[in-house]
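JOB MANIFEST
job_type = single_chain_structure
chain_count = 1
residues = 107
[input]
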Amino acid sequence: MAWSRRCGFGVERAGLQLLLPAAAYEFTIRDPANVVALFFFMFVAIAASALAARTRSQTDSARREARTTAELYAFSRKIAGVVDLYDLLWIVRHPSGASAECRKSSF
């Protein structure tokens, strides 16, 4: 029984050595004080990544809001130039220059 376990373990280990290449490099920390520095640098890297992601999402949001505001100003300029009620109804019914949200709605 013990021999079959040893043989099975040896076969599995040999199979893994064939499938996985030998490690070319090692990661060792010789000075225990450097462990603290390693974790500190990892913390700073994670914090910087989170700040960059937040900044990117805020930038995307600001761009969307600026585009929506510009479309609303353009639409208000069209409405301000209306003299007749039928022209106003046509502008509201056919939002060619209105925002994408207005295009999705149906009248």
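[summary]
The chain has a mean pLDDT of 79.
Residues 2-104 form one domain.
exit_status = 0
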